[in-house]
Specification:
Number of domains: 2
Shape: globular
Helix content: 10-25%
Largest sheet: 6 strands, antiparallel, barrel
Order of helices and strands: HHHHHHEHEEEEEEEEEEEEEE
Strand order of the largest sheet: 7-8-11-12-15-14
Radius of gyration: 24 Å
Oligomer: single chain
Number of helices: 7
Structural class: alpha+beta
């Protein structure tokens, strides 16, 4: 507030070129600080229209992405917990996660680049979930046009991540305990009941995607400036068993062949789709394994 009172004083004294330049300097310094202040407000304030209205004279213009994010970035606990079972919803990887999720990604391996194959899967994934946009490969720059979004292969890679008190590990972790996950999926066979699919997380990664220009229905072009962070698990899915094994079904266990399905865009999994971790037991005939679901931790906020 002191900074904005300073601006008011300066406005009353803009009588020389020297003071004018000092005024511009104050503006350029205080606006970013104000934006950061708004971003860091508690969610209870951000979601309260009356309290947020008090920032009306100090807030950015409605076209600023900050204004939209003050409401849209609020975390909904019940919505997040139910996400793994909402099979008809589209998940992009940019879903709103618990506030401490990113801070809990302490086990950062490196800032890296996806392999050519994994990059291709990510590009294919974006094209599947963002059907109203076009994407260009960084490997084929000539495909880029004014309305395309360039997908870069650069990522931040993590060995494990903690969400609502549950630690999810990966093959890149020091221990593989917790790297096996269960995800609900629609059956590939039309008419069949949804199924639970089990896989091994190879690693977790965040990817920055800057959406480029989009042609609106009214003919106008919308060009967002903000980067959208997407958080994924790269998962290899286990193959179905070579033959049925009924002995474990009554225990809620699942029987799989100890081999992976061919990799494709299905390996790119938004972390909000993870249902729970599972424990694996090896040593069954014909190279089969048994998975037993573990309780899902959901520590409230």
């Amino acid at each position: 507030m002191i900074s904005f009172l300073t601006i008011k004083i300066v406005l009353n004294k803009v009588q020389s070129q020297k003071v004018f330049f000092w005024f511009i300097f104050v503006i350029s310094f205080t606006l970013p600080e104000h934006n950061n202040y708004i971003r860091n407000l508690p969610q209870g304030i951000k979601q309260n229209p009356v309290m947020m209205s008090s920032f009306g004279y100090l807030s950015p213009t409605p076209s600023d992405s900050l204004v939209a994010s003050s409401v849209s970035t609020s975390f909904d606990f019940s919505l997040f917990v139910s996400a793994p079972l909402r099979l008809n919803d589209t998940f992009t990887g940019a879903e709103i996660l618990p506030p401490d999720t990113q801070a809990s990604s302490r086990h950062k391996v490196s800032v890296n680049r996806l392999t050519r194959a994994h990059y291709g899967y990510l590009l294919a994934f974006y094209r599947l979930v963002y059907t109203d946009r076009t994407f260009a490969s960084a490997l084929i720059p000539e495909d880029l046009d004014d309305l395309s979004t360039m997908v870069l292969p650069d990522i931040s890679l993590f060995s494990e991540i903690e969400i609502l008190g549950q630690t999810y590990r990966s093959k890149a972790s020091r221990t593989t305990r917790g790297c096996y996950i269960e995800v609900a999926c629609n059956s590939a066979v039309p008419g069949k009941e949804p199924e639970m699919r089990i896989g091994q997380v190879q690693y977790y990664f965040s990817h920055q995607l800057q959406m480029k220009k989009t042609m609106m229905p009214n003919g106008r072009v919308f060009a967002p400036n903000a980067f959208d962070e997407h958080l994924f698990a790269f998962v290899r899915w286990y193959n179905a068993p070579l033959h049925p094994f009924q002995g474990f079904e009554c225990l809620g266990a699942a029987y799989y062949h100890n081999s992976f399905r061919p990799a494709d865009s299905d390996c790119i999994l938004p972390v909000s789709r993870i249902f729970t971790c599972v424990a694996m037991k090896q040593g069954y005939p014909d190279n089969h394994v048994v998975f037993l679901p573990l309780p899902r931790k959901t520590i409230g906020l």
